[in-house]
Amino acid sequence: MFTRIDHIGIACRDLDATAAFYRRVYGFEIAHEEVNEEQGVREAMLEVNGTSDGHRTCIQLLEPIRADSPVAKFLDSRGEGVHHIAFGTPDVRGASADVREAGVRVLDAEPRRGTSGSAIAFLHPKDCGGVLTELVQAPEAADPT
């Protein structure tokens, strides 16, 4: 059901400065940038590598655009750092049902829109060893409605 690590989300206060660090130290460039009003973040995907099936593994930088966003609250309580890990799946609805059946709380009753139109759902960190976990269905196959 899970085909890859899609991305690792990093909460940051200054996306431009953090992206400059990843560029200078690791050579990672921004592959995609957008503002997600629903989630209250400005985000950038830094491509780490591509795969033979056309998918990529990324570092996702997340900067809050408003004080009430989940990322802003995370920064206030924990500071900058790893926010979540995301696993790729060809079927976010099916994967959500499978993990729910295994006893993991799925925080999104229905998939919602993620980066570039992907369909996403989050899993409760208390059920995942303290790690906020995201399920991601690539945008070409996604229908978050």
UniProtKB/TrEMBL annotation:
Molecular functions per Gene Ontology: metal ion binding; methylmalonyl-CoA epimerase activity
Keywords: Metal-binding
BP terms from Gene Ontology: L-methylmalonyl-CoA metabolic process
Annotated VOC domain residues: 4-138
InterPro entries per UniProt: Glyas_Bleomycin-R_OHBP_Dase, MeMalonyl-CoA_epimerase, MMCE/EMCE_epimerase, VOC_core
Metal-binding keyword on record: yes
Keyword Plastid: no
Gene3D superfamilies in the record: 2,3-Dihydroxybiphenyl 1,2-Dioxygenase, domain 1 (3.10.180.10)
A Pfam family this chain is assigned to: Glyoxalase_4
Protein's recorded name: Methylmalonyl-CoA epimerase
Organism: Allonocardiopsis opalescens
Lineage, uppermost ranks: Bacteria, Bacillati, Actinomycetota, Actinomycetes, Streptosporangiales
